[in-house]
Amino acid sequence: MKRKWRLLLNFRNWRFHDSTWLILSFTVQTKKFVDCFGPLNFITGLWKASLADHNFRQLTKMIDTATEAENTKTFRCRKNSPSVEEAGSGGNSSGGSALKKGPWTSAEDAILVDYVSKHGEGNWNAVQKHSGLSRCGKSCRLRWANHLRPDLKKGAFTPEEESCIIQLHAKMGNKWACMAAELPGRTDNEIKNYWNTRIKRLQRAGLPIYPPETSVQAMKECQKSQDMGSCREGEKNRHDASQKNCFDIPHEFKTLELNQGLLSCPHALLDLPASSILQKGVNSSHSFGFMFQAMHPQKRLRDLETPFCNCVGITTDSFPSFDPYEDDTYGKLGRTFWLSSPYDADLNVNNPSIVDVLLGSHALINGNSSSSEPIVAMKSELPSLQYSASHGGSWPIPPSPLPSLESFDTSIQTPLRDQKQSDCPSPRSSGLLEAIVYESQSLKILKNKSCPQISETSPMAGYTVESLPQSIAKWEACGDPISPFSQSAASVFGETLISRSSSDEPLSAEAMPGYKIKPEAVDWISLESDEKKDISSLQLECMRPDVLLDSFWFGQCIWHNKDQFITAMDMGQLLGDDTNRCN
DNA sequence: AACGTCACCAACCGCGTATAG
DNA sequence: TCTATACGCGGTTGGTGACGT
Q1: What is the rounded CA–CA span in Å between residue A516 and residue A409?
Q2: In the 8-state DSSP scheme, what is residue A405?
Q3: Nucleotide nearest A200 (Cα, C1')
Q4: Of A122, A180, A375, A488, which residue is least crowded by CB atoms under 10 Å?
Q5: How many angstroms is C1' of B13 away from CA of A178?
C-alpha cells in the first residue's frame, strides 16, 4: 500500500508540471475529492471505484504527511510558474505556501463568512492569514462580493432589472460595477454575464443590441446635456466623467453628439454603424445598438417580413414603437427587427440614397474606441474569404485587399460609391465586405453632406412600404446562395468569432493554453530509481483486465503525450490495485 | 444512448488606481 | 518622489447542465 501512495504522490507532483497537466484533465465529480484536493481533475469513475469515502481522508492525510519534503521541493521548483503553482495547489497545504483555486467549498464559504462577520469586509489578504483559508485575498473578496454577501439577490433577473440593465448599459457602457450599484443585490459579475449572454443571443438572432427606445432615450439625454452646455464643456470632461462618475455615455452616443446635425434628424438614428462593428467586433457590448444586424439567410426573412413593413413605416417624426422588453431576446423577431439589412442590394440599386442614409454612420466619424473593445480581435476576425470571394462578382471590388483595421479609417473613406454597381448587385461575398463598402460610401456621404442635407434628401420619407419586402423577395426569388442574405456580416462575424481560434490559426502549444505537448523529461528523470522500477514493474501488469480498463481512461494522456504513457498507466495501475483492495 | 452545441455561471487573470510607508 | 501593497474592475476562461441531433 505504501508503494501505491508513493506512486500517487509522484503523480500529484507531476501535475505541477505543465507538460503533465493534461494527464489530469479529467472531470471530477466526487465532491470529497474536490474538497480535499481542490479543482484537481481526476477520473471520477476510477476514483469512486478505488477509494471509499471513509478512507479518502486517510489517503490524503497520508499523502500529505509522507510527501511533505517532496512537496516543499516541488513548490520550490514551481515558484517560477505561479499560475501553475496556484493551479496545482491542492489547497490542503499548510503555511500558505500554496493558494487554492477553483470552486469554493461550503466549508470555505463558512470560514469566509465567519471571518467577515467578525472582522468586516476589506483587508482581504488578511483573511488568508487569520482564518486559515488557502485562498488569495482577491478570491476571497470575489467570493464574498458575488456570493456570500447577505444582501445579494439570488435568482434570475426580473424584467424590470433587465430593462434597467439595458438602459444602464446604453448610458454607461461596460461599467459593470457602476451598473451593479444601480441594481441593489446584483453583482457586476452577474450583470456582465447577463449582458454577454444577451449580446450573444441578440447577435445570433441578428437583432440590435439596444432597443430603439433605449437608444433614443440615451441620445436625448446626451443631447440634453449638450444643450445645457455640459457636452460642449469638452470631451475631456466627459472622458473624466467616464472614469469617475459612473454615468458615462458610451462613445457611440458621444459620437452622435459630434454629429449634431444628425441629431436633428431622427431617422438618421437608423444608421447602421457597420464600422462600429468592424471597429469593435460583434461581441462588443459597445457596439452601437442601432446597428443593423445583418440578417441570416432566407429563413429569417420570412420572420421579418412584418417588421420590415413596420420598419418602412418609420418616418422622420416617429420611430416604430414596441416594447423592447417584451421578451428577453426580442425573440419575436417580427416585432423587434425594425431595421432592415443594410446588405439589401436592391435597396442599393433602387434606392441608393436609402442605403446612404441607412448606412450613413455616425460611428464612421467616431475615431475613438473604447479601450476595452476588442479591436485587435476584430482585426483578426476579418474572414479572408470575403475578399477573395468578392473578386468573382459584380459587387464593388475594393481597390485593395481587405485592409487591416489600422488602416480601416482610411479604407472606408475610399470613394467606392463612385464605382459602378451592376444591375444585379449580388455580392460575391458575404456581409463584411459589403459593410466595408457601404461604410465607405456612407462615410463619403457623411463627409460631403451636412445633416440637414441628409434630412432633405433622405429617401426615408419617400420610401415606399413595398420596397423593402420586395427587395428581399427579389433576393429570395433569385435564390442566390451568395446573396447578401445568404451570409450576413453578422453571421460571418459570429461564426468566425466562435470558430476562429480553432480554424484560422495553426495549432500550437502557445495557441492552446494548457496543451503543452512537449513532455518534460525531468519528470521521469526526477523519479527515484526505485520508483522507476516500481513503475516499470507495474508496466508488466498492464495486461491485467482491470488495468486495461483503467488505461482506457487515460486515452487522452496517451494521445497527448505518449512519453507520459507510463505514468498514466502507472496511475491506472495504482487505481486498479486500489480497486481491488477496497473491494 | 452518444455526441455536439449552447447558455449560464463561477472564478481567474491582468491591469489600473489608490494608498501607505 | 518612489515603491510596495491592496483593492477594484473588466475581460476572459473553463466547468456544467440542458437541449437538440
Answers
A1: 39
A2: G
A3: B7
A4: A122
A5: 21
Q: Structurally, how many domains does chain A consist of?
A: 2
Check if residue A285 sits with its Cβ under 7 angstroms from strand C: yes
| CB A66 under 7 Å to nucleic chain B | no
CA of A293 to C1' of B16 (A): 34
Q: Can you give the pLDDT at residue A523?
A: 35
Q: What is the pLDDT of residue A330?
A: 36
Number of continuous H segments (helices) and E segments (strands) in chain A: 35, 0
A268 plus A302 within the same structural domain: yes
Separation of CA A18 and C1' B20 in angstroms?
A: 38
Asked if A261 and A194 sit in the same domain, the reply is yes
Let me know whether A215 and A70 are in one domain.
no
How would you class A145 by CB atoms within 10 Å of its CB: exposed for 0-12, middle for 13-18, buried for 19 or more?
A: middle
Q: Based on the domain organization, do A309 and A374 belong to the same domain?
A: yes
In a domain, A146, yes or no: no
Same domain, A418 and A313: yes
Please report, rounded to whole angstroms, the spatial distance between the CA atom of protein residue A35 and the C1' atom of nucleotide B11.
16
* A377 and A441, same domain (yes or no): yes
Question: Burial, A169: exposed, middle or buried (Cβ in 10 Å; 0-12, 13-18, 19+)?
Answer: buried
| Nearest nt by C1' to A141 Cα | C7
Domain co-membership, A57 together with A198 = no
d(CA A567, CA A8): 10
What is d(CA A333, CA A438) in angstroms, rounded to the nearest whole number?
Answer: 25
pLDDT for the residue A228: 54
- Does residue A72 lie within any of the structural domains? yes
- Chain A 187-246 contacts with nucleic strand B (CB below 7 A): 189-190, 192-194, 196-198, 200-201, 204, 243
Measured CA A182 to C1' B20 distance, in angstroms: 31
Do A58 and A22 lie in one domain? The reply is yes
Amino acid at A370: S
**CA A492 / C1′ B7 distance in Å:** 20
Q: Can you read off the three cell numbers belonging to residue A24?
A: 489530469
**Parts of chain A with a pLDDT under 50:** 1-97, 229-583
Residue nearest to nucleotide C14 (CA to C1'): A102
Q: Assess if residue A509 is contained within a domain.
A: no
Range of the domain at A361: 159-503
Check if residue A177 sits with its Cβ under 7 angstroms from strand C. Answer: yes
Structural domain includes residue A143: no
Return the pLDDT at A221: 66
Please tell me the predicted confidence (pLDDT) of residue A377.
31
CA→C1' distance for A568 and C18 (Å): 33
